[in-house]
Design a protein that fits this description.
single chain, mainly alpha, 79% helix, globular, A middle domain of Talin 1
Length: 344
């Protein structure tokens, strides 16, 4: 039933584009249409990479998933960089990390099997990577607390941490792929490789167009809804950009596969910290206003505290529903804090 609904909701993307071109509605309406449209597109990107992985084997499939699974977040961020909205970029990436390890993991623990065994060492390792990312982000963020946080010198200072983060991601990913069988290709029962790649390309292109509409209408939506751009980026845009991971983790948890569900939630946060943030930073130098990684204290505290708190919760390697409720409550507290923080 859910899959049928997602397939049907893919029609929202061309409808949103058509409405933008022909009807010229208010920016508030466009933002809502675009945000909802991105959810099934993110899901379809995940579907296409999964089917492609059936033909390429685990190693290439893993790389495809890492590369395209984060495509909506990267595209939104790059378009926001082009529009000179650095606070939106940083807010959405910080919000992605926080929502994955608190909201998504919390929902998975609530809906999954109580007291199920978790892969404690793997999850703590992924959380450790998030903490490493936060520590490296302090390098441009500390001087960014004084003066213009978007000055060019800070953008140049951000190159070092970005390169280190990306290098760490590559080392961890290569080590993980080497532990997988090299030539294990499953008997593909779904799409052909050609179909998977065509769908992947077309969906990524559609995501780029919808993301542009979303970013262009964000400021007007913020004003109409009387919300800060920071709140919209750190909560709404972050959740929309991670829709595929969010839905996937929850569905898998309901099927009783708690190790996989929790791995998706936490590793998605690590991928944002070690892949999305550095890639967007380095790509931003192709635009007029390169991105500095001068995050606000509220963003750094939220990311670091969320990772440390989740590490404390899962330290015994067991999934408990009350702990899931606690994680969601903590996320709710962060949302209230984000709401009160306002723009920079």
């Amino acid at each position: 039933m859910a899959r049928r609904f997602l397939w049907a909701s893919l029609a929202l993307a061309p409808i949103t584009i058509l409405v933008d071109l022909v009807a010229h509605p208010g920016k508030t309406v466009l933002f809502v249409f675009a945000a909802i449209s991105l959810i099934p597109l993110a899901w379809l990107i995940g579907e296409a990479t999964e089917h492609a992985g059936e033909h390429t084997g685990p190693r290439i499939g893993g790389l495809l998933n890492a590369s395209f699974g984060n495509a909506p977040e990267v595209i939104i961020a790059v378009i926001a960089v082009n529009e000179n909205l650095p606070d939106v970029v940083r807010g959405s990436m910080a919000g992605s990390i926080v929502s994955n390890i608190l909201l998504v993991l919390g929902a998975a623990l609530i809906l999954g099997k109580d007291k199920a065994e978790l892969d404690r060492s793997s999850l703590l390792g992924q959380l450790g990577l998030v903490v490493c990312a936060v520590l490296l982000l302090l390098i441009p963020s500390i001087p960014g607390g004084h003066g213009d946080p978007n000055r060019h010198s800070l953008a140049l200072l951000s190159i070092g941490p970005a390169v280190v983060l990306l290098g760490l991601y590559l080392v961890v990913t290569i080590a993980d792929l080497r532990r997988r069988p090299a030539h294990q290709v499953t008997n593909a029962t779904g799409w052909s490789l050609r179909t998977s790649l065509v769908v992947l390309g077309a969906t990524t292109a559609a995501t780029a167009v919808i993301s542009e509409i979303l970013v262009h209408s964000l400021q007007a939506f913020a004003k109409a809804a009387d919300l800060s751009e920071f709140f919209i980026a750190v909560v709404i845009v972050a959740i929309v950009g991670n829709a595929a991971e969010h839905g996937g983790a929850v569905v898998i948890a309901r099927r009783g596969k708690m190790k996989l569900a929790t791995e998706i939630a936490i590793s998605s946060s690590a991928q944002v910290g070690l892949l999305v943030i550095p890639v967007v930073t380095l790509v931003s130098f192709a635009f007029a206003h390169p991105l500095s990684l001068a995050f606000r204290p509220i963003e750094l505290i939220a990311m670091g505290a969320a990772a440390l708190f989740v590490g404390f919760v899962i330290r015994d390697g067991r999934a408990r529903r009350w702990e899931g409720a606690l994680l969601i409550a903590v996320y709710g507290g962060f949302v209230v804090w984000f709401l009160s923080a306002g723009d920079r």
